From TrEMBL:
GO terms for cellular component: membrane. This is Oxidoreductase. It is found in: Membrane. The keyword Transmembrane applies. The chain crosses the membrane at residues 22-43, 55-75, 96-117, 137-155, 167-187, 199-220. Pfam families: Ferric_reduct (PF01794), NAD_binding_1 (PF00175). It comes from Micromonospora sediminimaris.
Length: 452
């Protein structure tokens, strides 16, 4: 382990912001209000339930419609949520909501077909082609199969066997699923035809979810990119497998990007339109240029070295809650693993990051430590401390155990902790932070997880 130590800068008062708490409260209120509405709908159906089995199927179908609309909001990159809750938590919720959709998709038609099979006095399997003759039901069945494919590719074992680009392309099917599901609900859903009030509810819910998606992922990015006209101005290799891309444009200060945030990046003309990657800013935005630094993991990141100067850039953002806006303490601990150093390095340039700052940077070898020269200059300039933690875990190196963290930063429970790195490392660090009784409000995390 290599360690560089400097004297800390003077501490300054910290603003205590409740932005994340407000976002959580609004989300819970949204969930509870809609769940109450669903129960009222189920209690007052538009037509009688033929039997208990179809009643269970209808109940599950009601909740399936709502959860799918909720999923659209989670993948809609709503700035209010992205900048207060953060990509890490939203991606995790998106994943679990996806599995909830999968099970509802399995159980909803199963109970409906069991109920109708009982009414028609035929077998369950004979009822499937019988119902499939109705076009709305067939569309629902197709949507169910597509959801099954997406669920399978989201299983950890399957994800490890495919590139990020392949996984992302498969999950674009979600938009086809939404269209098929809405058509199925309009023509087949009992609750949709219940009354004018229920129709207004479902149309309003879908309009809100789809409108948020189109606004935040299409219209706003289009307007911003037309305004700023982003272009690649320099491509600089940092290590054998890492590269920095400098991007310039018009009036970049109007993006209001903050150190620690990220954008979703596309390079039209160099990559396919659907290839998009979330890369953090690796330097504090100065209003004139933006810089991203990426490690060659997938085909898109590996191809950044061949980006010609002048290449057009299409960016969505800024997103992310890994900023000083959520600070609660005067002193700070910054933890990074691998290429997760990029937002941490940008945070070191944030003038709002005051007080005593300690940086823990985990890399396999010193040669793998991206931007290490810049880090040393920054910590020296601001009087911070840097610990470069190298070695393999398989060789017994456990730099993020509770004992190791307490040894490196004895007052860790009195600091805000910012963490960015691979999911496995983030899980280990968070487990240690809980063991060291670092309050949740002091933990600011962004892990590398797949997201659409």
């Amino acid at each position: 382990m290599s360690t560089t130590t400097f004297t800390a800068a003077p501490a300054a008062p910290v603003r205590r912001l409740g932005q994340a708490r407000v976002a959580y409260l609004l989300l819970w209120a949204f969930l509870l209000v809609n769940l109450v509405i669903l129960q009222v709908m189920f209690a007052h159906p538009s037509r009688p339930v033929p039997n208990t089995l179809t009643g269970i199927g209808r109940f599950l179908g009601l909740h399936l419609g709502f959860v799918m609309a909720l999923q659209l909001l989670l993948i809609g990159r709503v700035p209010f949520l992205e900048r207060r809750i953060g990509m890490d938590k939203l991606t995790n919720w998106h994943r679990w909501t996806g599995f909830a959709i999968f099970w509802l998709v399995v159980l909803h038609p199963t109970f409906v077909m069991l109920g109708y099979a009982q009414l028609d006095r035929i077998s369950f399997f004979a009822e499937i082609p019988n119902l499939a003759k109705q076009m709305p039901v067939l569309l629902g069945m197709i949507a169910a199969v597509l959801i099954g494919v997406m669920a399978f590719t989201s299983v950890r074992m399957a994800r490890r066997r495919m590139s990020y680009e392949t996984w992302h392309a498969i999950h674009l099917v979600v938009y086809v699923v939404i269209v098929l599901s809405v058509i199925h609900q309009i023509y087949e859903g009992a609750s949709f035809a219940n009354s004018d009030v229920t129709k207004a509810y479902w149309w309003g819910l879908w309009a809100f979810a789809v409108g948020s998606l189109l606004t935040n992922r299409l219209f706003v990015p289009l307007v911003r990119n037309l305004r700023h006209r982003l272009r690649v101005v320099a491509v600089v290799p940092e290590t054998d497998n890492a590269v920095s891309v400098y991007i310039a444009g018009n009036r970049l200060d109007r993006l209001r990007a903050r150190p620690g945030q990220f954008f979703w990046w596309r390079f039209p003309g160099h990559n396919s339109w659907w290839q998009v990657n979330p890369w953090s800013l690796s330097a504090a935005p100065d209003g004139r240029t933006l810089r991203l630094t990426a490690k060659a993991i997938g085909s898109t990141s590996a191809g950044l070295r061949q980006l010609p100067v002048g290449t057009r850039v299409y960016a969505e953002g800024p997103y992310g809650a890994l900023t000083t806006a959520g600070r609660t303490r005067e002193n700070t601990l910054l933890i990074a693993g691998g290429i997760g150093i990029t937002p941490i390095r940008a945070l070191l340039e944030d003038p709002e990051l005051t007080g005593d700052v300690v940086v823990l940077y985990r890399a396999r070898t010193p040669a793998d430590a991206v931007l290490i020269g810049e880090l040393r200059n920054l910590v020296q300039a601001r009087g911070a401390r840097l610990h470069l933690l190298t070695g393999r875990t398989a060789d017994g190196s456990q730099p993020f155990s509770p004992e190791s963290l307490r040894g490196l930063v004895p007052d860790i429970a009195e600091r805000d902790v910012y963490l960015c790195g691979p999911a496995a490392m983030a899980t280990t660090v968070q487990r240690s932070l809980r063991a060291l009784r670092v309050p949740a409000r002091q933990r600011h995390v962004e892990a590398f997880r797949l997201g659409v």
